[in-house]
Amino acid sequence: MQRRHQSSDESGTPSSAISSTLRKDIDLTNRLSALLDAARNEELTSELQILPSAEPHEVLSRVLSPSSVVSTASSFAFFNKPQQASSVGFRSVGFGQCGIVFERPGRAYVVKIARPSFEDALWADLQAHLSVYHAFTNQQSVEVRTPKVCSYVSKTNNEWWDAHFELFHGSHLSFPLPAMALITKRILPLPKLARQALIDAYCPAPSQLAVRAHDTNRDCLARVYLGRRRGVNDPPPANFTLRNFNLCLDQMIELNLPIQHYAKAIGQAMAIMHWSANVDCYDVEFVLGSEGETTYTQEICRSSGLSVEQVASMPPHTDLDKRIRTNFRRRTTRVWVLDFNLCSKWEEQMGLERPDDLIAHLVAAFFENDPYYPRPSQDLEPGKSLWFTLSSSYRDAAASVLSVPGKDPRLALLPQKFLDACVLRQSEG
């Protein structure tokens, strides 16, 4: 099968005209996405009992709380009607170096399409992501979520691409399809109520109407930047966007958000990724988004299904396609970790034979990442207490992971060495 997608740019402007039928399908996709968004917003407003006149800071303080829960069953029922489903195509909800991420409104999954020359990075993404997912599910009370891995689709999978190829029309890809694709559970965006409040609180007034109207701002996840404050004299952002919104520490304090809870959750997650999944966390993102309860009729992650070891032993780009059927019920604001395409996995033997090299590598990944982590050895609050919370949570989670039968006791010394090395590097500037 050799097909070429129509050429277009990623800003959303096709370079050639599209048919009226295709335009209707694209418009339907956007209308249904907006309708679902509005339904979520109404239910959330009702359940949290937030008045329309509430101040933006009050709205954000409540909606971004990890205890915020909303029912979504009624709104998703509309999208499961067969007459609607057949015409609803994919729309882009994000992109990065490795690929472009797409959703179909009303579905619980996203599809990450690999850019040319980044197919191996997408396969690495699958391996690290699956390792982290299994490590999280094997632990009790993990605060941070990571999306369930559902499928990996090869560009030579004619059956899948025959069924889905036309649904990518109008999605503004700048490279040809078919391509390698990783399918995972979707992190639902922050609800419209929260996005409106973010615009009211932080978007320059002259830009607010345009920002509210832009489709991409429905795809809002907020990066939890515990290690960054806005500068006092920073100018307003030239191109304000809610897609991958940078939520800085001073803003979280201003909104009375539970920053100590975030630090504890991230420290726990990082320890599990390091010492259970053996993943270095390089360039991962910690974001606030919503979690929906989802039922899968088939999945590769069930206990009797595909294991991390099986994926590791497969040739790159082995096709793992499965059908996904979902049933949305309720959703909760959560901290999520995502984007594993630049992560490396290390063998346990490295920690035993070359522990100093491993620690140096993990420390480098810690400092080269975006500022999700509070920096160690800070004299000022709340940075000092945030580092104490993160490091204590990291130490406790690592001790729990490394105390299980079969783990070499020599590894138990390494988490504290990692924390000490982070403090040393920070002190050296």
UniProtKB/TrEMBL annotation:
PANTHER family: DUF3669 DOMAIN-CONTAINING PROTEIN (PTHR40780:SF2). InterPro entries: Znf_prot_DUF3669. Residues 335-403 form the DUF3669 domain. Pfam families: DUF3669. Residues 9-20 have a biased composition (Polar residues). Residues 1-20 are annotated as: Disordered. This is DUF3669 domain-containing protein.
